[in-house]
Amino acid sequence: MSQTRIVVLFGSLRSASFSKQVAEASVGTAPEGVDVSVYEGIGDIPFYNEDIDVPGSVPAAAEALRDAVGASDGLLVITPEYNGTLPAVLKNAIDWLSRPYGAGAIKEKPVAILSGSISPNAAKWAHGDAVKSVGVAGGKIVDEAHLHFATWGERFGANHPREDAETVRELGEALRALVNAASGELVDA
């Protein structure tokens, strides 16, 4: 199998957020031949505005996001839940990736969506909204790669997710499903 590139977007700006920690843990679960990179510049992207989304005037941060996702084979999205939905910073990134309309960097890109929250609900509302937003933007949702982390404040409060064997196993399975969708090849453990 040739090198498969997966970009991870996480929807929190807090430096020690659980969504960022899960993103970091996903890097270590990548199968052989898969490069997983965590995108760190999501907070630098201005709110989507069609007036500034003009060739030659696209903000550098938005262009960098489009370039990173456009050059990837798949996208892993990790969303916390803010007030019952996905965070604005993540929705904004999806908006930038959806343009230009019909040809955005996310179009036809396999996408896995993971959600988590401090509640037992595991951010399932945010997950549903992320699935809807990514699907409307043109991404190909990989259902078998979805994960939900309930009460992650308790689960990861004392240890980083990469130190939790169950989390590592679940992330590895989700990444394999995403890579299989992206490469069209079956990737084993």
TrEMBL record:
Family matches, as Pfam families: FMN_red
Coiled coil spans: none
NADPH-dependent FMN reductase-like domain ranges (all copies): 4-150
InterPro entries xrefs: Flavoprotein-like_sf, FMN_Rdtase-like_dom, NAD(P)H-dep_reductase
Keyword terms, alphabetized: Oxidoreductase
SUPFAM superfamilies per UniProt: Flavoproteins
Enzyme Commission number, as recorded: 1.-.-.-
One of the record's GO molecular function terms: oxidoreductase activity
Domain of life of the native organism: Bacteria
Enzyme class at the top of the EC tree: oxidoreductase
This protein's record includes keyword Kinase: no
Matching PANTHER family: CHROMATE REDUCTASE, NAD(P)H-DEPENDENT FMN REDUCTASE LOT6
Protein name according to UniProt: NAD(P)H-dependent oxidoreductase
Organism (species): Nocardia carnea
Record lineage: Bacteria, Bacillati, Actinomycetota, Actinomycetes, Mycobacteriales
